[in-house]
Every structure is written in C-alpha cells, then in structure tokens.
Design a protein that fits this description.
Helix content is 41%, strand content 18%. The chain has helices at 50-69, 72-88, 90-101, 105-125, 164-175, 189-202, 216-225, 238-248, 273-285, 305-318, 349-354, 356-373; strands spanning 3-4, 17-19, 22-24, 29-34, 37-46, 132-134, 143-145, 152-157, 179-184, 209-211, 229-236, 254-259, 263-267, 295-300, 343-344, 404-405. The two termini are 21 Å apart. 42% of the residues are buried.
Amino acid sequence: MSALATSAASLTDGATLFIGGSWRAAESGYERFDPAHLDRSTGRFAAASPQHVHAAYAAASVAQPGWAATPAPQRSEILRRAALLLEERTDEAARRLTADMGKAVRDASAEVARSVAILRYFAGELLQPSGETYPSADPATMLLTVEQALGVVCAITPWNFPFAIPTWKLAPALGFGNAVVWKPAEPASGSAVLLTEVLIAAGIPDGVLNLITGQGRALSAELTGDPALAALTFTGSNGVGVRLRQAVADRNVKVQLELGGKNPAIVLADADLEDAASQVVRGAMLSTGQRCTATSRVYVERTVEPRFRELVKQRVTALVVGDPYVYAGQTPLLVSEWGGFGFPMYGGEAALDSRTEQIRAFKRELTDRAFAGDLYTQATSIEDETNGLIDPTTGALLVPPGILASPPRR
C-alpha cells in the first residue's frame, strides 16, 4: 500500500483510500463514467483489499481514545468548520454528485445544502447538556449518567444520496467521539472523496476518519469481522442489511439499518385529485424513483379512479428527460447493473440513441404495470403512444426507475 501526502481531488491517480491520515492507492482499481455523458470518465478509484480494511480499523482503534477525550466544544468547532468549507464548495460538490449518479445539478445543490445543515445541527448538539442526574436516597451518594463514545463505527452508505446520507451518519458518529471506517457505494466514490477532503480540512485528526472505496461484497467479511468494530450503520437493500446484522449479531455489535421500503399513497374520493396526482407523480418520479421513499403504489377509491388515472397520465407524459447539468426538469439518473430490469447503456451517446426504440417499446409494455396494474384493480392495455408516456408532439420521453445502467467497471 503506497501512501500519498496529497489529496485525491483530481481523481486521476486512483489514490482514493484515506487511511490513518494519508491517501493511498491500491493494486487494482475501477473507473467511473458520467451517467449523462457515458463517454466521459469521472475518475479512477482504488479498489480496497482486505488488508486496507484491516489497516483502516487499526488506525481508527489507535485514534479513537484521543478523539473521544477531545472536549466536545472542540469537536463541535470542527463540524462547524466542515459545514462552512462544504458550503463554500457547493457548486463543485453538486457537479461532483451529478457526475457520480446523474442527479440534476439543481437537486444536487439542494442535497449539498442539506449536508451543510446537518453538520451545523450536530455542531450545535455537541454544545447541549450531556448526561443526567437522579435523586438519591443516600445524601452521601450522587447518581448520574455520563455519555461515552461507542468506539469504532463502520458506516456503509448508498449511491442515491451521496452527500446527505453519509453526512447524517458521519456527523453524529464523529461529533460524539467515535472513529469511523466509511465504505461508500462505488457509484458515489467521487462524492465520498470530496466529503472526506472537507472533513480533513476542517481538522479531523489522523485515523479518526478512514475512507474505503471499492466493492462492498468483496470486503464484507473484513468490514463486519474486525474485533475493533463497536457499531455498524447501513443504508441500502433489505437483503444486504439482514446479512450485515447476522454477521455481527453474535458479538453484540450495535446495528442501525435503514433499508428499502414499499410506500403506498391512498387517494380518497373527497381528495383534491389535481394535487393528489401531482404528489403521486412527484413521489414516484423524483430522482427517477431511485429512493427508498419513492411512491411505489397507489390505492384509489373506485368512484374517482378514471379521473385520477387520467390526471396521472397527463403529468407523467409532461415529464421530460434532460441534461442534468443544464436542465431543471426530470433527468435520467444512474441505475447500476444490479438495479433490476435495466437496459445497459454502454458506449456513449451512440448507445443511448440505439436504445431509444427499445425504451419506447419497454414503456408501452410497462405503462399498465407501473401506473395501472399496481394502481388500480382493473388495468387497460395502452398501445397508443399518445396515451402512454411519450409525447408525440414534443418527443418527451420519461425514463422510469430502473431503465438505465451504468457503464462497466474497467
């Protein structure tokens, strides 16, 4: 493992592991591509080995006691500085997020702003009173509780919110005196590097924060099996979450899981149907449905079903796919190969063009299933494009959840 003194901001040398206070490369790596411009490389990243994970836990174990002993106001000040530094880099961070996973720059900027707010919130929380006192039956005895850091925390984060979800895990873990080994999802690697840089610049001591990039499946045993692990926090799929919990259950490691969900909306006959349709489409299609909170089904009273169906169709048809760097509307976001029923979109713009007709046919086939079969008891087959999700006048095409796939790793 070669240690580099400089930052990995350029993402050209593959030195994206941050362990014990230094950036490191690995023997193998992977390249990521912009989901909106598939021929545009967004960086090379280190694929960590089990030895890197062991080194990260070792560094965290050494650094954690001193960090926990650091007065809370000093830890608060570091989070406050991190918020300021991230805010100053909002535009850069938003474009990095978009390059990672395709979110519109406007929405990416809002996510970065949320991360700034989370850092500021926990900076304030560290200045609140800590612990409690209790009445004692013995006048010579004082009863009190004292809050202590857990130790070394492993944070495993997803790609769909590359700044917000890591921040709401890292800020409290670091703020309250824990050291962290952080494993982001591969598509979010670039955003993870930038957020790590911000926290380092704010004053996080060496070894307190350790970044591991690479394939989570290949590192699962090392991430969950290290004796130094005191707590695990994970956001992702149900299956992976269950396996992670099982891997640490016999050691009583504290576990926090935020897993996928099915989120129905209920529309009653006396509802404002115009507003309900807008909210349902927004809930289902915002971020192209790539959220655990995305609306996945709707239960509608039969008496208003025909009108509600038409309102949903109108709003879905009006959605437009655009370049996330310049277009403020619906955008084609990244879904990786494991995302389900995706079309591989390898090979740049030519590949995107070649798939257009397949996508159109795919949408006609799935319109009922996505917007009728799960919405209504009786579905009507939609064969005509004008009644589907493609506007024949503007050519606007909605790319639904799960239709794009990322370029292959290389």
